[in-house]
């Protein structure tokens, strides 16, 4: 029997709320730069948090997530 390959695009939206001037957020960003990406900024940190949330269900200090388990959309390409 022949094998079949199917590509599926998966998407979801996470909404984060944070104060970039809060001590908690600044500490989280600094830790991210020290451990993950020394040149990373707010956007890179938020992408990292979204990926971590998707994989592990965790968020970072100083960042609130509106819906930790959003509805994912699946589309066969």
Features:
4 strands, two-stranded antiparallel ribbon, alpha+beta, 77 residues, single chain
Secondary structure topology:
Blueprint: E1 8-11, E2 16-18, H1 23-35, H2 42-56, E3 63-65, E4 73-76
Antiparallel strand pairs: 1-4, 2-3
| Overall pLDDT confidence | 93
Structural class computed from helices and strand pairing: alpha+beta
User: How many structural domains?
Assistant: 1
Fraction in helix: 25-40%
Largest sheet: 2 strands, antiparallel
Shape: elongated
How much β-strand is present in the residues? 15-25%
Give the uncertain stretches in residue-range form.
none
| DSSP, total strands | 4
Spatial sequence of strands, sheet with the most strands: 1-4
How far the N terminus sits from the C terminus, by CA atoms, comes to: 22 Å
Order of helices and strands: EEHHEE
**Overall radius of gyration:** 16 Å
How many helices in DSSP terms? 2
Written description of the protein model:
The protein is of the alpha+beta class and 77 residues long. The chain has one domain. Helix content is 36%, strand content 18%. The protein is built from two helices and four strands. The protein has a two-stranded antiparallel sheet. Strands 2-3 form a two-stranded antiparallel sheet. The chain starts with 7 loop residues before the first strand and ends with a strand.
